[in-house]
Structures are given as C-alpha cells and as structure tokens.
Specification:
The two termini are about 55 Å apart. Helix content is about 15%, strand content about 30%. The longest helix has 18 residues. Strands 9, 10, 13, 14, 15, 18, 19 and 20 form an 8-stranded mixed beta sheet that branches. The chain has a 5-stranded mixed beta sheet with strand order 3-7-4-6-5, with helices on both faces. The protein contains 11 helices and 51 strands. The chain folds into 4 domains: about 120 residues, Alpha-Beta Plaits (2-Layer Sandwich); about 350 residues, Rossmann fold; about 100 residues; about 220 residues.
C-alpha cells in the first residue's frame, strides 16, 4: 500500500533457507537469507531463473512462457510438465492458477531446486521460457499449503512483515478532513449532478486490504457479485468473510486493517450523518464498489495482484484503485533472476488489463523518491524481517508506481493543504516530472474506518493511498456521464481537465504535479455529451423538398427547419420558435417566414441553438450555429431541390500545413491564405472531416489511437476525444452512411472496419476490397451523399460506388503513376474528383475521367503538406 515512514515493525526470524551460490544463471551474493544477482541475464538468450534455495519448503513460483501468445496447446504442455518435474524431484508440485491469455501461470512446489529443475525440463521439451522464479522471499502460509506431502516453514502465521503503512488518527475534526473533496470541486460537482446530470451505473474496483462491508457509509455500496478475495495463492474466493479484513485478518497492532475501508469511503461512501450534521464524504456516492482483497498482513504478492487484475477484466470493472505496491520488492529489478518472474507476470497482467479497457489508478508510494531517478531502497524484501539496506535500484520499477508510461495506468502523487490555503507536495510523496500522471489530495483525509478501530467509524489518514481514490472517484464521474468511454478516453479527460495552476511549484525542484490537481467539477461540466445540429434547411413548397439554408438566396414565403440530435433537450431559433425533448433522439424545429415584401436584397444570419441536458452555467453541452443566407428583394426563392442533410453546398479547397500552422484558402486559386490558425503539435497526424455535420470540414489530431476532434477552424482545446482502432492502424475518413457527418474507418490490409459515429467500440461494418498493398482513396464518386472507396494502382483508379467488395463500378486513368493525388469536390457539384499535385502546381479535374486538367493552379511551396476540405 502507499506508505508513510512510521518505522519498521515485526522483524521476526522466519528460518528461511539461504540460496546456494552459483545455482542459477547469474552469480549471486548472499545477504540476510536471500540472493541479489550481480549480473543480469537476457531472456532473449536464456530464461531468467531464480537461484536454488538451501532447503526444501513450500513456495509459490511464477512461470512465464517466452511467447505470451503461445496458445493453449503450449500452455497445457507447460503446465503438464510441472507434475513430471515433481516426480523427478520426488517432491510435490501443483499448478495454482493459469493465465493462457498472456502466457503465465503460478505453481506451488516443495523442492528447493524447483525453478532450476523446471527450466531444464522445459528446455529439453522445447518449451521456451521468459522466466521462472519464486514470487516471495518466504515460504507460503500454512493455510495456503495445498501440497499433501510438503510442510510449510512459514514460521509464525502472525508475521506482520516490515511494510510501512499510512497511520490513521483522529487529530482533526471529521469536517476538516474533507478538505480534499472541496479542493477538487467535488462539492460543486454534486450540486451540478443533483440538478442537471444523470449518472450511469459505474463500478470501481478497490484492490486493497478488504473493505468492511458492514460500515454504515458503505452498506449498499458494494457490488458483491464483482467482489472476491485473492489472498490464498491468488485463487479467487467469494467467501464474504475472507474478503473482509476485519473478519479474517484483524491487525490492531499494525493499525492497517482500515486501509481498504478508508479508500472505499473516499471513492463512493454514502453521506455521513453525525446527529443534525451531514457531510458529503466521497467523490461519487452513486458509484458501486467491487471489494477485491489482495492484501494479507499488508503483503501483496504477485499472485494476489495478478488475480485481482484478471478478476477486474473478467467482471468488466472499468476502473481500479490500486493504493499499494506489489511485494516483496518495493522496487523490482526486471532482469534480476530473483525478481524477474514475479515482475514479468504482473507486467503482463497489467498489459492484459489495459488492453481490455480497464483503467488502473495507482498510488505513487511514500518514500520521497524521485521516480525518474531511482537510486537505493532499504525496505526490500519486506517479508523476511531483514530488508537489505541501501539496495541499488537504478533501472528498477515500482509495481505500479513506475508505470505512468503505460496507457492503462495513472500514477497519483499526494497533495497537502497549507495553512495559507495553497496546495503543495506532501513531504513523503514520491515525485518525478515523468513519473507522476496527476495529483490528488492525500494529507489528513477523513473517511470511513472500521468500528473495531474507532467507535464513531471514521479517521483521517495521510499518504498517496488517500490521494489515488480522489482520482478514481472522478474517473467514475467521467465514466458515469460517458458510459461509452474507453479507459484511454477516461484517462485523457482526467489529464486534460486537471488544474495545474492550482498547485504550487516545489521550491526544492521535486516535480510532483503531473497534469495538475484532479478536477471533479470539470468532469461534470466540460466535454459533456453535446446537443447537435444536423442540418438547417429551407423549403419553398410547404416542406415537400428541402435545401440547405447556408449560402442560399431565398425570397417570398419559405419554411425553415433545424434538425437536432445528440443530447438535445430543447432548441431555439433566434427570436422565433422553440421546442423541447428529453435529451435523446431527434428534435425538429420549424418556422414560417414571409420575405415577399422585402424591398432591398440583404444578407441575413439565423442563429440556431440546441440545448443539452446540463443547465449549469459552466456546462459546454449546448451547440450554437450561425447560418448566413441572402434574401432577395421582392422575389421568390429558387425552387427547393431534394436535399440530404449531408450534402455539401460548398467547394473543396486547399490548406497548407507547416508544422502546426495551417494556411487555409477559400477558393481554388493561388495567392495569400484567407485564414491562418495553429493547432496541435508539429509532428501530429491530422485527419480532416466534417465531424459535426455543419457542412464545414475541420481538423482532428491523431496520437496513437486517440483522436482530438475540433468542430471549428480554430486552435485551443479539442471539442471531443475518442479512441478507435490500434496505434499502428491506417485510418480513413468519410461519410460512410450519408448522414452528413464524417467518421473513421480502420484499414488492415484489404479489410476495412467502418464506424458510423465519432466514437470507440466495435466497427459498424466490415468489408474487404482490393489488395493489401493497394493505395486507397475516399470520395463521393457519384454524388449520392455517401463516401466510398477507390483503389489506385499506378495512374489507374478502380472506383466503387457502394461500401462493398467485388468488382469496381468504374475504372479511369489520370496523371502519371508517380503523381501525388488529392480528392475533392472542386466545383461544388456534390461529386468528388481528382487533382494531381506536382510540386506546388495542382491539375484539377471536375469529372471522373482522363484527359487534360480542367484547371491548373499554384499554391504554397513544393514541400508543403496539403489538406483538402470545405473550410467555411
């Protein structure tokens, strides 16, 4: 668990056998009953194997296949080999839990040489290993001994380890200890939620010491179906008493049995009632909690942690709070044979967790260590009673405190509130410019406490363990508002909305702020599900046919309508009709206008607003669109032509990109840019599309599989962030279903995974077309409002007019095989055609045919990056 320095406890001798020198793949030095490798061995050349012990005892081992995707047959072969090795050793061994999804499993064995013997047997049987080694520096507890012919030499089952923990006190008043909720805007967030925001159901997993499920703040908050205990060999156990530390492992002398209960109370405790006073003591009391116990006597071994991580995936728990470090090594050395197997299996489980859309919120730990520059550790191993002093840990990794670079992990530092009202790093908190993701309140925090400790059921505590649940609670708010969000999207929003300016810089240069203080208020007011405006159109024949109003010239009697969607609850025309909706579905506003008596032609602007669900003054879920059009003097409108809301009424033109600066042209011509903006970073990938269906193309930044979408030609913060596909995918943009909005398609070889909305999740359609090595273009080749594919081979283009496989509908030749080719609607006829680029000269065709260009223009410089779109 995240810990403060309160002194070492329980240094009891355990009679643990010493390692034998030279028994493994690297030379070892002997210190206090365990080994430290003096050289590391690459798993690429041979497996990392923990050294042999000097005496037999019941121990647990992690075995990691070299290929984590080796498959079930290889895994079965590797597991069956355990019994063979045990028979050869004339000893006991059995498989405890296996994880074929990432090529690892745990074994309990009695022989002192099991790791060495198994590695040798695997080599003889053609089973490639990454590592095999014991998960602890002590034998298993007697209640974990599942071997019939072995004897556990664990010693006293009441051994408490030497792991420090955050001490709980009642030095403050309960109300004073709730400062963290206010500091992150949690009090204001609850006011917004009560009036404006409906939260979807969210479960947060608390991987910890076991929640007191009978505490009045937590009764009814526990999702028992998603709860378990992992403290017996890392095998899930649904026994309610086993997962409740107060029942199973009461440790008053250690004063740590409160830990999970305190963490849970901060995330989702119910309102605390103290006589006539009530206190909002949690970030999101509407969330549910999964009680995932992974700690016994403060010790969290690899098999316990892996069990909890895998459990979270199996039970679709989207957010995990991990206010602990994995034992027995405070910081693990990945290439040390003594530690490699335990480290590797936890790393694989964490990667598996993040690949299955679970976000892990981890405490940074409380050693006042620079996570970017680890040096020494004097707390490990913490299960022997004799940790090594000043153990070198350069290149070491904290599990999970050093995982901030993993997409599915956030590392949280501890912030304290100073007497002058400012916020700064708590002295004990770890830090690091790269090592910290985000900061949270963690000093003197009041929360639930088992009644066995304090009769009134609360206490205050300090540590990164108290900071992490503030972040987990805010993550649950984001997930509650955006149930479709992936773990990557939740993380991106937490980082984007964090308040960096709220935190004071460290005078000693110990950078702890990460993205800033976690922000609960922003979670419920910013980046909200938006009301959208799909189209604004007019009709001259009573609504039989409709045309786009933007840029139109109208007169006489006309009917105007606006079609709204998304999270719309009501809408309005400027000074005209209004209507309302319940926040889902489609809302249509109409009004009749008579311009028959207009004496002078004039330009008009209609303001259309779609209002979202959140009526808070700070909410950003409303959408306003200004539509410019022309009214003719004493005239009638041109008869309306049938119109799809998706149809563009403007011509595509060029934009030049230089770094993160964009030079937009509003016409197919040379000369100066009509508009210049800056957006994103110079090395970003930039997709272009009409993301909100307003008829104007805008930019999106792509970083890996995250897309930061703008709905206006401007700089600043993205309007929406989504995740789709994989970081290495080829991505295409098009209006695949003709609804007027561009969305994404992922290409893998000649298979296309098409989405019809700007969102993550599964593809709406999957098709195959062309060959894996083809160059592919996207366009509306027949003017039906839907984008489809064209395959380019040299200077020949094989065009499909439907999202389907099969033969091309048309084949044309244009330009030269080495030409750069652009696609756009260059003349505004609603049909996309080709343009050849040679340097800064563009040869534009207005039809899908060969022959000479219809227009030739020069723009920009020969080495410019060029984008195509309807920019206004």
């Amino acid at each position: 668990m995240g810990s403060t320095d309160v002194g070492e406890r329980g240094k009891k001798s355990m009679g643990i056998g010493k390692r034998i020198m030279g028994a493994a793949t690297a030379a070892v030095m002997m210190f206090s009953g365990f080994a430290v490798a003096t050289t590391s061995v690459s798993a690429a050349s041979s497996p990392l194997v923990s050294p042999e012990w000097s005496e037999d005892a019941i121990r647990n081992y992690a075995i990691n296949l070299a290929d984590e995707h080796a498959g079930s047959s290889t895994m079965t072969k590797a597991k069956n080999l355990v019994a063979t090795v045990a028979q050869q050793e004339n000893s006991g061994a059995t498989v405890l839990a296996s994880y074929p999804q990432f090529g690892s499993f745990f074994v309990q064995a009695a022989s002192k040489s099991f790791a060495k013997d198994y590695a040798a047997a695997a080599a003889r049987n053609g089973i490639a290993l990454h590592s095999v080694g014991d998960t602890r520096q002590s034998p298993v507890r007697s209640d974990e001994n599942v071997l019939q012919n072995g004897i556990s030499t664990y010693g006293e089952d009441t051994f408490e380890g030497t792991k420090d923990s955050e001490k709980a006190t009642q030095q403050l008043t309960y109300q004073d200890g709730l400062w963290g909720i206010k500091a992150i805007g949690g009090d204001k967030a609850k006011q917004v939620i009560s009036k404006n925001v409906k939260l979807n159901s969210v479960t947060v997993g608390v991987m910890d010491s076991g929640i007191d499920e009978r505490h009045e703040d937590l009764v009814g908050q526990i999702d028992t179906n998603a709860s378990t205990s992992c403290i017996t060999n890392g095998v899930p156990d649904g026994n309610a008493s086993k997962r409740n530390q107060v029942d199973d492992d009461f440790m008053d002398s250690q004063n740590t049995f409160y830990h999970a209960t305190h963490v849970a109370g901060t995330i989702a405790g119910k309102t605390y009632n103290a006589g006539w006073l009530t206190y909002d003591n949690s970030v999101n009391p509407q969330a549910k909690l999964a009680n995932i116990r992974v700690s016994y006597h403060t010790l969290i071994y690899p098999e316990y942690a892996v069990c909890g991580l895998n459990w979270s995936v199996d039970h679709r728990i989207p957010i995990i709070n991990a206010s602990f470090s994995v034992d027995p090594w405070h910081y693990w050395m990945p290439n040390n044979p003594t530690q490699a197997a335990g480290y590797e299996v936890v790393l694989r489980a964490t990667e598996y967790m993040q690949n299955n859309n679970v976000l892990l919120i981890a405490a940074a730990m409380n050693d006042s260590q620079d996570l970017d520059n680890l040096a020494t550790d004097s707390k490990s191993p913490n299960d022997t009673g004799s940790p090594i002093q000043n153990r070198p840990i350069v290149g070491g990794q904290g599990l999970f405190a050093s995982m901030t670079n993993m997409p599915g992990v956030m590392v949280v530092s501890n912030v304290q509130k100073n007497a002058n009202g400012t916020f700064s790093r708590s002295d004990s908190s770890n830090y690091g410019a790269k090592g910290i993701s985000i900061a949270g309140p963690g000093t003197d925090i009041s929360s639930a406490y088992p009644y066995e400790g304090f009769d009134n059921g609360w206490a205050s505590a300090t540590g990164t363990s108290m900071a992490a649940p503030h972040v987990a609670g805010v993550a649950s708010l984001i997930k509650g508002i955006h149930p479709e969000y992936t773990a990557a999207q939740i993380k991106a929003q937490l980082l984007r909305q964090a308040n960096y300016k709220q935190l004071s810089a460290s005078a000693d240069g110990k950078e702890y702020r990460g993205a800033g203080m976690v922000n609960a208020y922003a979670a419920v007011t910013k980046n909200q599900p938006k009301a959208t405006i799909a189209s604004v159109q007019y009709s001259t024949n009573g609504g039989s046919t409709w045309s786009n109003l933007r840029g139109a010239t109208i007169g006489g009697k006309v009917k105007i309508r606006a079609v709204m969607g998304g999270a719309v609850t009501s809408g309005a025309f400027s000074g005209a009709a209004t209507a309302s909706k319940n926040g889902t579905g489609t809302l249509t506003l109409t009004k009749d206008v008579d311009y028959s008596n207009v004496s002078k032609t004039a330009n008009k602007t209609l303001t259309v607003t779609a209002y979202g669900r959140n009526s808070s003054k700070d909410a950003d879920d409303d959408t306003t669109m200004k539509i410019s059009y022309t009214v003719k003097a004493n005239g009638s409108s041109k008869p309306s032509e049938p119109s799809n809301p998706s149809t563009k009424s403007h011509k595509d033109t060029l934009a030049v990109r230089r770094g993160n600066t964009y030079y937009f042209k509003y016409s197919i011509s040379g000369g100066k840019a009509n508009r210049v903006i800056a957006y994103g970073r110079p090395n970003d990938t930039i997709p272009v599309g009409d993301w909100d269906g307003d008829g104007v193309d805008t930019l999106a930044v792509r970083r890996g599989n995250l897309y930061y979408v703008k709905n206006s030609i401007s700089g600043g913060v993205a309007d929406k962030v989504i995740a789709y596909g994989r970081p290495g995918d080829t991505v295409l943009v098009g209006d695949w279903n003709g609804d007027g909005k561009d969305t994404l398609a992922v290409r893998r070889g000649n298979t296309y995974y098409i989405k019809n909305s700007i969102s993550g999740g599964k593809a709406d359609r999957v098709i195959g077309y062309g060959k894996p090595g083809d160059t592919v273009l996207v366009g509306d080749w027949n003017g039906d409002g839907k984008d489809t594919l064209a395959v380019r081979r040299g200077n020949r283009y094989f065009i499909k007019n439907a999202i389907a496989g099969g033969q091309a509908d048309k084949v044309v030749g244009y330009g030269k095989p080495a030409d750069t080719v652009l696609v756009g609607d260059w003349n505004g006829d609603r049909t996309d055609t080709l343009a050849v680029r040679r340097g800064n000269v563009y040869y534009v065709k207005n039809s899908m045919s060969g022959g000479p260009a219809d227009r030739v223009i020069g723009y920009g410089k020969p080495n410019d990056t060029v984008l195509v779109g309807t920019w206004r």
